[in-house]
Design brief:
Layout: H1 4-33, H2 37-40, H3 42-61, H4 67-87, H5 91-118, H6 125-153, H7 156-177, H8 189-194, H9 199-219, H10 222-230, H11 236-258, H12 263-284, H13 288-303, H14 306-316, H15 321-351, H16 355-387
Helix pairs in contact: 1-3, 1-5, 1-6, 1-7, 3-5, 3-15, 4-5, 4-7, 5-6, 5-15, 6-7, 6-11, 6-14, 9-12, 9-13, 9-14, 9-15, 9-16, 11-13, 12-13, 12-16, 14-15, 15-16
Length: about 400
């Protein structure tokens, strides 16, 4: 794997850390600004919505510059957002800093996925994408616990200052290690938008929303589930999240290794397995050992879908992959937000802290259904293409 992938992984590590570490810092932030915990929770919601909006917006605005330069600009924006968060004198400015940092998230992973895939031979694309995403998974194992510890020991502002420094390292690494490449010829907004006329691109994005949403329906409420149902102490939640991050790391490696060999079969196995594990989690949550195993498996199966789904979008948006890739990153965050809302709804309705697991199981099963539908459409595509080529994805080639 090219050394340039390390620079992309460092950037991904910083982004992953700043996205999730705020959850462990909310009490301190709320206390300093004199706001309630639910109000401080807007720092999480605002970030997620910023990713959804920023992914297509900045990708379109950056369409006139090279991908390397755009990646550097995005890391610069990420640094500015985290510096603003570190020094913000008011909650409003703190929220602004979070949103500014989040705007870089979707475009960085979207453009970075394209760059990573272009650095290697076609049979290693998913592995290259997984290598970049390793930074995001390692952030959950190392970055988030370490950032939480720094915030509790020194102050939460120090955490965001450290994350900003990581962003600078990532920016310098991209500047030095990522090869300069000219802006792709013929890359225009109209061409990028044409990719969305391919039903396979839209199906892959829907799988992303539902599949990863299944993960976060359960994990968003892991703290009350593990403390109130499984019987863990509050201090153990941090290590359960590390266990979840370890599962993400292992799942990412699995997805990167096998997506290049058997992409759709891998999705069948991971999405089906995720639905089963989430359904069983409802019962397993009453036992400490079984619940810990379930947390590990949810992380592994959930993140094993990321490299194949991202590669699926790149393959199906052939010739105009940048915007589609970035929008698919936004789809992950849309799934997170949707699932968190659904999980909270069933808890508020009185179904208990394990109810979000059923929500997640249903979402994952729906994603599996879409994967089977997508494969069925693809099997019928050659005959349709022979009769009317323009009917298949508006002229966008279909890959088998």
């Amino acid at each position: 794997m090219p050394l340039a992938l390390l620079a992309l992984a460092v950037g991904a590590f910083g982004i992953g850390t700043t996205e999730f570490v705020v959850m462990g810092l909310l009490p301190g932030i709320a206390a300093e600004y004199g706001v309630s915990i639910p109000t401080a929770g807007l720092l999480v919601t605002g970030y997620a919505l910023g990713v959804v909006v920023g992914a297509p917006l900045l990708t379109v605005l950056g369409g006139r510059v090279s991908r390397k330069r755009m990646l550097m600009l995005l890391m610069g924006l990420f640094v500015v957002g985290n510096v603003l968060s570190a020094v913000a004198p008011s909650f409003g400015l703190m929220l602004t800093g979070r949103v500014v940092a989040s705007l870089a998230h979707g475009s960085f992973f979207g453009i970075g996925s394209v760059v990573a895939a272009e650095l290697v031979t076609p049979d290693k694309k998913a592995g290259a994408i997984a290598t970049m995403f390793t930074g995001l998974t390692v952030a959950n194992i190392v970055g988030v616990p370490l950032g939480t510890f720094i915030g509790q020991a020194v102050g939460w502002r120090a955490t965001f200052a450290v994350v900003a420094a990581l962003g600078v390292v990532g920016l310098l690494g991209i500047a030095r290690l990522v090869p300069a490449a000219p802006r792709p010829e013929g890359a225009r907004l109209r061409g990028e938008l044409k990719a969305f006329r391919n039903p396979q691109v839209l199906l892959a994005m829907a799988m992303t929303v539902l599949g990863f949403g299944g993960v976060f329906a359960a994990i968003t409420y892991i703290a009350p589930m593990m403390t109130e149902v499984a019987g863990y102490s509050e201090g153990a939640v941090t290590w359960l999240l590390v266990l979840f991050g370890t599962g993400m790391f292992l799942g990412n490696l699995l997805g990167g290794r096998y997506a290049d060999r058997a992409l759709m079969p891998l999705l069948y196995v991971t999405l089906g397995g995720l639905a089963i594990v989430l359904a069983l989690f409802t019962v397993a949550a009453h036992d400490k050992v079984l619940s810990a195993i379930a947390v590990l498996l949810v992380g592994a199966l959930g993140f094993a879908t990321v490299p194949p789904l991202q590669k699926r979008v790149l393959d199906q948006a052939h010739g105009a992959p940048t915007l589609a890739s970035a929008v698919n990153i936004g789809a992950f965050n849309l799934g997170n937000a949707l699932a968190a809302w659904l999980g909270g709804t069933v808890i508020a309705a009185g179904f208990g802290y394990t109810a979000p697991n059923w929500v997640g199981a249903i979402l994952a099963a729906a994603a599996l259904g879409l994967a089977l539908w997508s494969a069925a459409l693809e099997r019928r595509a050659p005959a349709v293409e022979a009769d009317a080529p323009e009917a298949v994805g508006a002229g966008v080639p279909v890959h088998h």
